[in-house]
Write a structure and sequence with these properties.
The complex is a heterodimer of chains A (116) and B (115).
Chain A: E1 3-5, E2 10-14, E3 19-21, E4 24-26, E5 32-39, E6 46-52, E7 60-61, E8 64-69, E9 74-79, E10 88-96, E11 105-106, E12 110-115
Parallel strand pairs in A: 2-12
Antiparallel strand pairs in A: 1-4, 3-9, 5-6, 5-10, 7-8, 8-9, 10-11, 10-12
Chain B: E1 4-7, E2 10-13, E3 19-25, E4 31-37, E5 43-49, E6 56-57, E7 68-72, E8 75-80, E9 89-96, E10 105-106, E11 110-114
Parallel strand pairs in B: 2-11
Antiparallel strand pairs in B: 1-3, 3-8, 4-5, 4-9, 5-6, 7-8, 9-10, 9-11
Classes of the chains: A mainly beta (116), B mainly beta (115).
């Protein structure tokens, strides 16, 4: 079974600085999807960014980018120019491409604080 | 992405009672899911709500404890039955627009506290 690990329970960053959140996963599959979701105190889970494993190019969404290292099974999230609104729990998630049940495997989360 | 609402947003319930949580989507979606997020923990899938048929439950979750309905393509309910304090969690509904699509979108969650 797949597992997702986030080794940083908590992180903090100064406003306008850059922070990187780590995620590693374990799988024997070659094709899959990876995601970062954000959950602010309001509890609404928001999709931040997604990556398809067969694509070598790292996904980017405005201030958010990933460093996808398939061989190392690593999928880190970089947040540039951090803003107060970025403060939230961040979850890394894995989904098998062939899983039509669409079961996500979520990591334990990283709580990000943004300091003014 | 779809707009998803859940009712109630939070509730405090007594041990032994049941609570039904509603999930409403503003457009027809193929797949709907229910997750549990225990305090300070990550998300665990409870079941996939299938329209017109019985829900598909994950290991450790049973229909008698978490009956689910999905009468149409925009609505689902999750009931937490015979509650105990261990059921205190956030319950989240999520949807996917079509089978095989990679992304799920989540509702705002229902915070349940059982006394």
């Amino acid at each position: 079974a797949q597992t997702v690990t986030q080794s940083q329970p908590e992180m903090s960053v100064q406003e306008a600085e850059t922070v990187t959140l780590s995620c590693t996963y374990d799988t024997s599959e070659s094709d899959y999807y990876l995601f970062w979701y954000k959950q602010p105190p309001s509890r609404q889970m928001i999709l931040v960014i997604r990556q398809e494993a067969y694509k070598q190019q790292n996904a980017t969404e405005n201030r958010f980018s990933v460093n996808f290292q398939k061989a190392a099974k690593s999928f880190s999230l970089k947040i540039s120019d951090s803003q107060l609104g970025d403060a939230a729990m961040y979850f890394c998630a894995y989904r098998s491409r062939d899983n039509y049940g669409q079961n996500f495997v979520f990591g334990p989360g990283t709580r990000l604080s943004v300091l003014p | 992405s779809a707009v998803i609402s859940q009712k109630p947003s939070r509730d405090i319930c007594q041990r032994g009672t049941s609570l039904t949580i509603q999930c409403q989507v503003d457009s027809q979606v193929t797949m709907m899911f229910w997750y549990r997020q225990q305090p300070g923990q990550s998300l665990t899938l409870i079941a996939t709500a299938n329209q017109g048929s019985e829900a598909t439950y994950e290991s450790g979750f049973v229909i008698d404890k978490f009956p689910i309905s999905r009468p149409n393509l925009t609505f689902s309910t999750l009931t937490v039955s015979n509650m105990s304090p261990e059921d205190s969690s956030i319950y989240l509904c999520s949807v996917a627009n079509r089978v095989g699509t990679d992304t799920q979108y989540f509702g705002p969650g229902t915070r349940l506290t059982v006394l």
